[in-house]
Amino acid sequence: LNFGSDNLYGVHPKIMAAIAAVNMGPVPSYGADEWTAAAEQALSDVFEKDVKMFFVATGTAANGLSLSAMAPSHGAVLVHANSHMSADECNAPEFFTDGAKLLLHHSSDNKLTPQQLHATLTGFLNHAPKPAAVSITNATEFGTVYQPDEIRAISDLVKPRGLKLHMDGARFANAVVGAGATPAELTWKAGVDVMSFGATKNGAMLLEAVVFFDLALAEEFNYRRLRAGQVISKSRYLAAQMLAYLKDDLWLDCARHANAIATDLAAGLAQLPGVRVVQAVEANEVFSVMPRKAYVAANARGAKFYEWPIPGVAADDAHCRFVASWNTQEKQVTDVVALIKDVL
Amino acid sequence: LNFGSDNLYGVHPKIMAAIAAVNMGPVPSYGADEWTAAAEQALSDVFEKDVKMFFVATGTAANGLSLSAMAPSHGAVLVHANSHMSADECNAPEFFTDGAKLLLHHSSDNKLTPQQLHATLTGFLNHAPKPAAVSITNATEFGTVYQPDEIRAISDLVKPRGLKLHMDGARFANAVVGAGATPAELTWKAGVDVMSFGATKNGAMLLEAVVFFDLALAEEFNYRRLRAGQVISKSRYLAAQMLAYLKDDLWLDCARHANAIATDLAAGLAQLPGVRVVQAVEANEVFSVMPRKAYVAANARGAKFYEWPIPGVAADDAHCRFVASWNTQEKQVTDVVALIKDVL
Amino acid sequence: LNFGSDNLYGVHPKIMAAIAAVNMGPVPSYGADEWTAAAEQALSDVFEKDVKMFFVATGTAANGLSLSAMAPSHGAVLVHANSHMSADECNAPEFFTDGAKLLLHHSSDNKLTPQQLHATLTGFLNHAPKPAAVSITNATEFGTVYQPDEIRAISDLVKPRGLKLHMDGARFANAVVGAGATPAELTWKAGVDVMSFGATKNGAMLLEAVVFFDLALAEEFNYRRLRAGQVISKSRYLAAQMLAYLKDDLWLDCARHANAIATDLAAGLAQLPGVRVVQAVEANEVFSVMPRKAYVAANARGAKFYEWPIPGVAADDAHCRFVASWNTQEKQVTDVVALIKDVL
Amino acid sequence: LNFGSDNLYGVHPKIMAAIAAVNMGPVPSYGADEWTAAAEQALSDVFEKDVKMFFVATGTAANGLSLSAMAPSHGAVLVHANSHMSADECNAPEFFTDGAKLLLHHSSDNKLTPQQLHATLTGFLNHAPKPAAVSITNATEFGTVYQPDEIRAISDLVKPRGLKLHMDGARFANAVVGAGATPAELTWKAGVDVMSFGATKNGAMLLEAVVFFDLALAEEFNYRRLRAGQVISKSRYLAAQMLAYLKDDLWLDCARHANAIATDLAAGLAQLPGVRVVQAVEANEVFSVMPRKAYVAANARGAKFYEWPIPGVAADDAHCRFVASWNTQEKQVTDVVALIKDVL
Prior knowledge:
The structure is a homotetramer.
Chain A: H1 13-21, H2 34-47, E1 52-56, H3 59-68, E2 75-80, H4 84-87, H5 92-96, E3 101-105, H6 114-122, E4 130-137, H7 148-158, E5 164-169, H8 172-179, H9 183-186, E6 194-198, E7 208-212, H10 221-227, H11 236-246, H12 250-270, E8 276-277, E9 285-291, H13 292-300, E10 306-307, E11 317-323, H14 330-343
């Protein structure tokens, strides 16, 4: 009954098989192999546009390195206060950008709005950093999803002011499924310049990439990636994952499954007296508030899900996060709902 | 006939099998799994001492993060000019240390000597950075190997002055075999405080770790690793590699094979008229000088090995590097020697 | 009628005379002169404790370098959102600390409270930076003043958790006068470890210093100052300023004058219909809200003071800052009050 | 008899008078005053070209900030190993550039040559930083002077490769006098993009500036200067120095005096048996080798000049630096020569 995170789950068998399939004699290293080239092409096909792709080791590195190509060290990046890069990556954004500043915004659904961004940009004073980029997360850390027009509205605001637009796509597959839009519609067609493309949470072993839609921003990126210790020597093993991940829409199938599990879980939780589902379930996460005693008891009896502290929750309530993965089973849903019902 | 690099070769079957064996349902992420703990213990056993181990994604990151724990941003690290961190890692040392300076030393065999270090340390002026650490590479980038007493001599010089000692062990297995010493004798018993422990070049898929012998230096290391985007979420897949790598001395068997191949290759090359082997072959690399025409012709006919430019080589000669791997075959040696003989 | 800032005003004649008095033949540079040593001693006398003092060029540098001695690059510094280092120094805190993060707090009077800090420190998650320091400003950017017991309460909260305490004293003289406490009571006796000691706003030409009460933190500070390009070669000209500034309490006389001017100005403004003084006037600044039309008209007629945008002010009102200096005259107060009355 | 450094000497009376002359009531701060604008115009007149000028506090800051506008953090700057930024500024270049690397070159006269730079640029490997800029010092730290054609030769080599050219002009006035060329001929007409313009060593109190000939490089410079804590609030006091420094060629008169003193000193030393002048005296410095015993004895008897250790000097000899200033007297020359003669 483990809903702790999607990154707890293993590697999809098709991806594991693909890794094994490239295990052979000498192959060019540092990304000069044929599979890495094919993976970039496969992403270009998925996005209906020539992209530049660079594998990195982690989502944190993908985010930080993305920003480093968009913001100078005297710049500012506008983000949500609850975004992964703001809340969960230590000082990685500052590190990778050589000291740029994150300017934090708040909203209950974890999405940025043009209104908030406008207020920040027009409130800038003489001695502030240079506004350089906006970063949004899709799906957000609260399981909500930006629609293409929401992204476009942000882009329309900030592009004329010279800012670049980044998307943290650690759960991009879930967003694509949740939005019912194409990858292209959710990214460059809506104004996204660079994205962190994450697959590790959705069935890969270690597969994160920085994807450039604005190819000019990629020009010196290999220097940045190298100095950050993010150039994987045996690149073929990542490329094989990417090829399997994208082939025949495996990535979307995995996300579709996870999202469906989350939807079912939300429905089950919503029926429980004293439990509220507090965010729209548009991807693979469910956020709910339940009596703290029930939370503690459920965990004690083996249900794994985390309290996710936010302001404004009553002291005897717990704000909880459930994450569904590509391999979470329907039975886990019915079991965890039954268990929580039991402890309520 | 590929002697381009050891990192071109694939993953040892035992390591690949170990990866597959941990592919299962939910497992704690970010290193909280049982295999990661077991891998740290296995390293402690190998080194005959409790160590702290942190997986990272690349050797460059291992080096940079190691230095970050040893040198302040206003500090200096004494290294060889041909060391990997000086010559092959872009500005990664500066990046990870927030701007520390590498002070470069020269020698024909790529080893640092106490005499050189002494000259640097006593020549320091008022306005120089603070000498903070020394980093040595074992085996060196030229295939030579430090013996324990050579390391101890460096340690004896710099420790009383407050400097820390780092070892870049990207080819540590080859050094252990080459030195005929134990891992402990080559490291902490000789004064090494922190090392980059590399396995990717010796049969792993992606397996690099920072290993602390001085445990106090590890105290805040997880913050450093996180902000550098080097915390691998599905740590178990790296841990499985480490466990298989160390089990039954697989790592040393692989290195023994590679070193033996290199020795044979050197013997074969040395017999060719006009070809000189210019470094002691103590690990898995052979450096030789041959007529440039022969180098070009051999490569054109399918022998892969790199010219490695150094000063002092005649214009019509090429200084060449051959690297043997865990999976290089003896027949490749006889074939490449025959081919070079043919083109001479 | 210039209340724009205290740094618009010139240099006190006694300080100018002191500068001229040290203009002579060869004198040791980089702080090795006798006056620099005397200035450090004079500060030690003022603070009733041996301190270490380092001249720097600006208040921003004093703040940033102070933090660099207290927080690692993976650390966090807890500050007020309106503090100078948060709002008015571009990315200097991130720059000088090599990427530490400022964690922002809010309050209407610009003071931090133990309650807020406690909430931040107990809310810290696994992947956040290490809480390393708290920085308070005295007098604050809103002209309010921390009393010794308020500082002590913060210190008592954070010191047991291993955090250091910094004070931005850009207007420290005004705080000393405003608090009616001794320099020692407002700093190290209340738990302050390091301070930015500013004199430029209070009658000096260029005189900022980092003052260490915790001498251990100063140990490697000269390296930090040097790498930041903040070691002034002809230090005697700064030292002469400091000696004159402290001599016979000139600094406190200047601040007493400025604070009195501000008090009078606040009294004058408070009597005007439609004008509200919205902060306690405890130092040399007055914050008031007036009809925007009046603000615009007053400025158009030659009264210089700035709108200081903050949330929650009605659109047709202006939140305005007036700053009094050591050389602002009483007549300027009566004139500006009369002028504003006239335009209302 | 103090030849320790030119920065030991005081402020020229005309410059001191200019400082006093701007000491009056409220004046715009942070460089918005009329004198700062006039100083920029005066420099434009001197250089026969519209320049952008930014005051900073120190020569180290001028160098570091200059580089930050020319080299990315993944870049490399080619410099002489004995240059001030390499040898005397701790890790300031790395700090200000966020981690760029200095690539060091050697020569006996402290000048870079196109041949050396060409070797570095063509020897660059795959994993090296991006060559971004060259920095030369004029006059050099060894008192030699680049002629315009020497600078042009460097520029011609590196500009087509996309590198920028910086000049450290800490002793630029001495170079102008020594080269017998105009300021324009020695800088932008020869390809210099950015320079550190130093006046502190030549009679100012605190006067260093970054001067941009390539105005595009200056676009975001104020952000850089601010985040580095290098924006002087009471800018008028620096501007007044600059105006007086340039007025009626005071700066060149001061340098002419200092250079003449150095020439006389060199002539005097050269006549002494056992003393060799080992560099061409083209500015205000003299380097000579004398018996160590004489060096020690001369210093003991009150002659102040420094040993300047370099490789290749016999153990019983001392390699010594003498620096002449705007205010060094001819009698000091005759006295120090007599004294050294006496102790030989």
